[in-house]
From TrEMBL:
The keyword Kinase applies. The keyword Transferase applies. The lineage of its organism: Bacteria, Pseudomonadati, Pseudomonadota, Gammaproteobacteria, Lysobacterales. SUPFAM superfamilies: Homodimeric domain of signal transducing histidine kinase. It is an enzyme of class 2 (transferase). It holds the Pfam family HisKA. Its EC number is 2.7.13.3. CDD domains: HisKA. This is histidine kinase. It catalyses: ATP + protein L-histidine = ADP + protein N-phospho-L-histidine. Keywords: Kinase, Phosphoprotein, Transferase.
Amino acid sequence: MSHADWFGRVAHDLRNPLAPLQTAAYLLRCGDIGAEEQARMLEVVERQGVRLAAMIDELADGLRAEYGRLLGPMTETDVGTLAVLAANGNDAAPVQQPDESAPLRMRADDSRLIQMLRTLRELRLSPDEVLPAPLIVERQGATVRLERHLACPPELLAHPARLLEAPLPARLCEDGLGLQLPIAAAIAQAHGGRLDVAEQDGMLVLTAQLPLEA
């Protein structure tokens, strides 16, 4: 995707929430609607406002990643604990840790690492996907390995590595700009690790590797 195409898509996606916001504002200003309709319009304003804010945050994160400025303060943390925190509020598919008693310590920006973990848990490319998805967390020598398998449209399986370099197709992005995977890859890289994506038996496999403290 060229820069011109990308900016055109961003402008289009950011404009999408504006139409329902403007309609709701007009109806509320007219004062010609009942209490029930007013409540519904306020819900539209809140929902579309949250959607627009999420898009702007995603765009800002993409720019920070481009300039290598994603991370904030670094502290010692446990990856296994963060993986569980990233799933808070979800009732299904617990994090799978072979040995939960063994700490997986590393220096990290907790908020950014949780953001990456949530992408691994919650990314959906197919309506058949049940979320949150299982996330495998395991130690491999001096690194921690995180793995997620997800259903994927066949056309994306031909060149999976592109998903880390370009936004997802617009039809797969309900509330964002499709930059989740490039941003997650940038977060892994900023922590001295990497995020890889590959095709396996008709599924997409996301694998993150992060360095642990000695």
